[in-house]
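Appendix B. One record, verbatim.
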Amino acid sequence: MSNRYTVKGSQLVRPLFEFSGACGGCGETPYVKLLTQLFGDHLTIANATGCSSIYGGNLPICPFAKREDGRGPVWSNSLFEDNAEFGYGMRLAYDKLGEYAAEAFGRARGGILKSKAALVDEILSAEQNDWVKIERQRERVGELKKELAKIKNSEAEELLVLADYLIKKSVWVVGGDGWAYDIGYGGLDHVLASGRKVRALVLDTEVYSNTGGQMSKATPLGAVAKFAAAGKPLPKKDLGMLAMTYGNIYVASVAMGANYQQTVKAFAEAEAYDGPSLVIAYSHCIAHGINMTKGMSEQKRAVQSGRWILYRYNPDLRKQGKNPLSIDSPRPTVSLEEYMLGENRFRTLYQSHPEIAKNLLKMADEEYRWRLNVYQQISKMNCDVSKEEKVQSQASAN
């Protein structure tokens, strides 16, 4: 049995997201596909309005599929601005129903399920921290449901309805940067601060892709977009750093084309983390003005130039006295100018406003070098507080 949480292992799993109506070469869909390969059989998606809701709910067809046994992702779309809260409500409902199911089966083990008390105990105490254990739990619950089907009373009927809530449910709120950085940011921040097991996947195209390419707070410095015809003069909002300031949120910045394994690892760690998670995924877009057949290579160049930083912030490492921040990017090997001139969203400014373009390039180069330096310094900090206190007390004694 292959390890699903590797590049090879994940791609041996049938994707439960197929044949979407997205643009050819879309940079968002590979992440959604991967999400279904890793967690599809127990996945619930709350999808913000935008590109991902259009190709995700393109009725009368649906790109989301199900396995041979009928299991697959649950998908729903509410509005643009309240997607995080929408998914949060799903998480609260699953948690409450799971608690109620555990209480109900706990009572039944001494009553109508007395003959299956050992199986009930096994179900209630089972770990479900990977897909193999979830499948085993599903088998145990299936066995218990067969037993309940033989009992003809109202209690057994209620337990039959509740049984599936004893199987782990994974809730992901999915949307673009217009939702996560701008219009829905207040709600996203609220949900991430709740401490609940809600996972957020931000498909970051750095522009309002679905409505025609307007500037968002995720648009990088120097890029041309609607409402930024002379290039955006301000830096991109650092959504990941804002989330890290809480200290108890798992945060990752990924670019599949630059590092496939880091992307898979970040998704797996985000799902395993006992708390809220945020994964920011660089998604190339037709609005960038690139050859869409080479989108993954363009992602790699963004990382190689230092413009996009790959990292993972795992609060669990803090509990071990380790630094929670891991920088997964290599040292920049491509000049920022070379990278920017390869995309029309930057190159057109050199043609229309060359002096402005040169100034913005200089500002961008300083900004990205400064930001990478900040992340590197944080990643090298000593986070073993007890050890630091011991050193300080020894210094005071001397």
